[in-house]
Amino acid sequence: MTDEELKELVAENSRAARELRESVVELRASHAALREESDRRWQAFQEEMRASRREFQEEIAASRREFEEKNAASRREYQEEIAASRREMDRALSSMTRTVESVSRDVGRLHNKFGDYSEALCQPSLTRTLRERFRMSEIAPRVVA
What we know:
Number of strands: 0
Helix content: over 70%
Number of helices: 1
Mean pLDDT: 92
Order of helices and strands: H
Low-confidence stretches: none
Strand content: under 5%
Largest sheet: none
Oligomer: single chain
Shape: rod-shaped
Radius of gyration: 58 Å
Structural class: mainly alpha
């Protein structure tokens, strides 16, 4: 190989090396740009996921509040129904108590009347028996000694 050919080969290798360096610089710049784009997309994805998580948590909190409100309303309705039922039961019990007391008084009066009737039936023959057999002259019915 001649000096001329060798110089030409070295020049060609130098050009190829320069082009290769330029290509590496371009690739590095391209890689950096791609990396920046990838990082930007990753950050956007993470932010989107955080926003989605916040939305989901807000929906859960809203659902929980709605459930608790409905539950509290249902509990109030149930307590009101129980209170109304108790008032009705108390009224019925009070009415029944008055009825029982009234029936007891009526039965007592009837018992007294039956006793008075029995005494009235027995008194004439008892008075006669006390005078004839026991020789009693004064008889006082209804006197307790």
